[in-house]
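Q: Structure tokens for this one, please.
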Amino acid sequence: MRNPNTRGVVSRQRRALGAAAVAGVAGLTFGAGLAHAADIDAPVATTAAADATEVTGVKVDGKKATDVQSAKYTAPLVDTPRSITVISSKIIEQTAATSLTDILRTSPGITFGAGEGGQPLADRPFIRGQASGNNVFVDGIRDAGGQTREVFNLEQVEVIKGPDSVYSGRGSGGGSINLGSKSPKPTNFMRGSVAGGTDAYVRATADANYAFGETAAFRLNLMATQGDTPGRDSIDFKRWGIAPSLAFGIGADTQVTASYYHLDTDQDPDYGIPLASKRTWGVAGTDSKTRPADGISDVSRDAYYGLSARDFMKTKANIATLVFNHQINDDFSVRQAVRYSKTINDYVVTNPGDGGAAQFVAGEWWMKRGTKARYNPATTVAAVTDFSGKFDVGSIKNSFNLGVELSREVNENAAYVIYTTAGSACPTGFTLNSTTAGVGDCTRLYAPNPGDAWAGIITRAPAARTVTKTAAAYAFDTITLTPKLLVNLGVRYDDYSTSGLNVTATSANGLITGVTYTGVAKATWNFFNYQIGLVYKPTASSSLYTSYSTSSTPPGIAGGDQSTAGSVGTGNLATTQLEPEDTTSYELGAKWNLFDDTLALSSAVFRTERKNAQVLIDAGMYAQVGETMVQGVELGASGNITPKWQVFGGYTYMDSELVKGAVTIPVAGGPPVQSLFEGDPLANTPKHTFSLFTTYRVTRKIALGGGAYYVSDSFGGNQGGAGGGANKVYAPSYTRYDAFASWAINDEADLQLNVQNLTDERYITKTNGVHHADPAPARQTMLTLNVRY
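A: Here is the predicted structure, written as tokens:
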């Protein structure tokens, strides 16, 4: 039963927090889970048939969306002309997801890139062909710094597809990802889960909510897990997390919520397997192997090239947030959020493709282990203010949001100097290059041994430092001209600046012998972005829309990494501050809520163009004329086809192209040659992606289901494809199947069985196209006991 004191806050959420509207891949997508009972986020019994409760016109198993920076959505998302996918906590639970990679696999059109060079070994999602690792948010505030993310404290994940600088500020143009955290509720409940599985998998979580008084509550989420990576030799992980939150004024006109999040991870880092280019083919008739057509090495997908005695990866995240919500009256409200966060990504990893070419010695292929290393603390202080409301001008209705965002981010980036004093020796006849530090540290290409002994010196060099400041103002308005015709407008102005300190260190025998600091002059950009959309509503539960949106990508984050102080160009542009890259998107779409608003369908056609990238145009001459294009179609479905049958998934077709790339300058000089790669598909942009997760309630106690996921060929760089590039390295297409089953023991407990990668498909998830490729985990079985009180 609804608390009568909650009238004001429910009214506010229905108007300004339109995230409760369902609209598939081209709109807001909920994963309708096994039937829920009763209240918002309350403990549920999977045996009972749900009474779907109406929430902002959409019935989704009686479950309401969490409050996550949704004030910017000034209409229910079925009436918002954007492609926005929301993955609910129930889908996260049913798919046994534990990482951001696991979650986003359920949403087609999103891929992940491999870390290498300036890119961190961390989450690197690509949305519509654009690196979006810099565009991850927690409760609407940017989560800067390279890291790997957990799910134990997540209520839902929102994905905005297409240029969205009007929402998020600086960005890579592909879109952004918002992680919505769990928050205190006005009811007492306790949940827990214990899971075990193959590959030494163990996981335990707890979620306790205690309401005291009528308007206050405390919530605590805990997690601990460990295991091995299925199908990968000697790669294990362990992590734990804690997330307490306290709220006062729940359901009242004024609410204050304080929360803290901590995650600690310790794991073996994995740079996958080397590419075919690692070795020379056809060695004096002694090697009969042929080069794989995809450019991926023919080594075992289980092979791990790291050293257990040396390599490590440790990450930490500490996030403290204070949120103040005040309902001024029935028409206006204000929200103030303040955040302090610090994350650390710290690793030394073996890169199997970075130690020079493999050499054929004494009838075997040998390689030297290369290394990559990073120590990257990132600290953010941010404040976001939103003023939301509604007003009428004659017969024209307006629902608006005005906001201000202020932030200061400090990114430090240090390398490790790694010197081997004792390790796996290279065989006699193996040629070491003149820059090799320490002894050889070699291994067999086709039989690497992660247990090789190693001794040496690992010294962290001083860190480079980048300070990024943002001051932004934005405004959104949904204008209801008639009950069937709406106009959606949004504008944002950013004052964005970076300054920093670069570091150059010299070393000898693993020790730092000299350090040079170079200041980087402050660079400032002012950019204006906007979106405009027109919505026509054939019925109250459907919409047809068209929209246009823009995005700005300042120099230094174009690759999707954390902010850097790089602001000038190369060659003739070495003293010129570069302009941001510009991305624009055109989109046509439709959304339908069917079967008494229990099933959401969606479709969209889009075209995204990115311009103003710096490319070589002549010998020593650069200009900001680089251009890419992605166009395609998205289809989505989410909800219940029948009371017993739920679906969540969709299909995305992407036709990508390098429209204007860098020229090639002949070694002997002469006129520039048009880029060989123009016309090629973009990296990490497969033409076809499909996902479907579905469950069916066979009896009151038993539900069965599973997932099917297909990804077509995905290139690792703009070096191969229809345009005739030289490298032609790509991750081949694959189809993966997962299985799901649950048995409700009683109203307080159920058993859940998940089999990931049911057919043990051995496929490549991603490749950087230069050094290495990352194999997918092999088959894994997990059994989970869920309890709730």
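A few notes: The chain is about 5% helix and 55% strand. The first strand starts at residue 54 and ends at 55.
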